[in-house]
Amino acid sequence: MIFSPWIGNRTRFQDALPSIYGSGQVFYEASRKLILKGADGVIFVADSQEERLDANFETMENLQEHLKEHNLKFESIPYVLQLNKRDLPNAMATPELTKQLQKKGEPVMEAVAVTGQGVFETLREVPSLSLPNSKRAASR
User: Fold this and answer.
1) Helices H, strands E: what count in the chain?
2) What is the DSSP letter of 40?
3) In terms of CB atoms within 10 Å, which of 8, 13, 116, 138 comes out highest?
4) Which residues of 21-35 are buried (b: 16+ CB within 10 A; e: fewer)?
């Protein structure tokens, strides 16, 4: 996995596992769609700020559409929800944000990406979810 902390003032991760998919500017839409091709797992990075809740909902809808376009099922792909920007004073309470965004009982991780807090812990979650799926695929 390649971690490039500041490319164009945005945090980037690159590799097939996991795909990082987060809310953000509309002009990243094509990039978010492309990174899902061949994904074995997804980390949805949600913005914890209350005023970004609608953007999180919209991006989550886009994620589900993009997964379908790549013949991947949201219901079965290993998936982790990361609540980013937990350090901000206007961050929603974790239980409320989790209630709003958790879709299928997935692990929920808290993070402050600019300091690295919670980032690698989140990255370690997806392989543990992916391994059972890989074993099933290999046994077919």
Assistant:
1) 4, 6
2) S
3) 13
4) bbbbeeeeeeebbeb
